[in-house]
Amino acid sequence: MTESMWGDIASLINGLWPEADWQPIERELWLKKLGPLDVEIVKNAIEEVAATNTRKKPALAWVLATYNKLREQLESQNRMDAWKTESKSKEVADEEFTQCRAIQRERLIEVIEGHQPECVTAATKEVTRKLGVQFHPEPIADWTHLKLEAVCYYLKQGDTHESE
Predict the structure, then answer these.
(1) What are the pLDDT digits (tens) for 51-74?
(2) Which end of the chain is more exposed for a tag (fewer CB within 10 A), N or C?
C-alpha cells in the first residue's frame, strides 16, 4: 500500500471517528496489518465497522474480521460470475455444436439423395456387411448420424471407383 493510499485510509478513519485518540504504536500496528490488504476492501470494511459500531474508536480486530468477510463475499461472487460465464460458454458451445451438426446432417442427406437409389441401396448393404448396422425401411431423414456418415463414405468410395 502506498503512502497516499494509507493517507486515504487514515483520513477515512479520522473522518469516521474524529474523537479517537491514536498513539503512534497503534498507527504502526494498523498500517502493518492493513497495509498488505486490498485498499478498496479495507475502505469498505472500515465504513461497515463505522456503520455497525458506535464506540469512539474502532478496534482493529473488527476491521480485520469485516475485511475477511467482505473479501470472502467478493471471492464467492467472483467464483459465481466465473461459473456463470463458463456455464454460458458451455451453453453457447453446445448450441453451436447442435447447429453445426444439423447443417452437417442436411449436407449428408443431400449427398445421399443426389445418388441413384440403386447406389444408395448398394452402399447400405456394404455398411450392413462391414459395420453390422441394419437399415429398416425408413426415410433417410430418420437415419442416425452414423448411418448417414457411413453411407456417404461408401457412396464416395463407389464414386472414386467409378471415375477410375
Answers:
(1) 998 888 999 999 999 999 999 999
(2) C
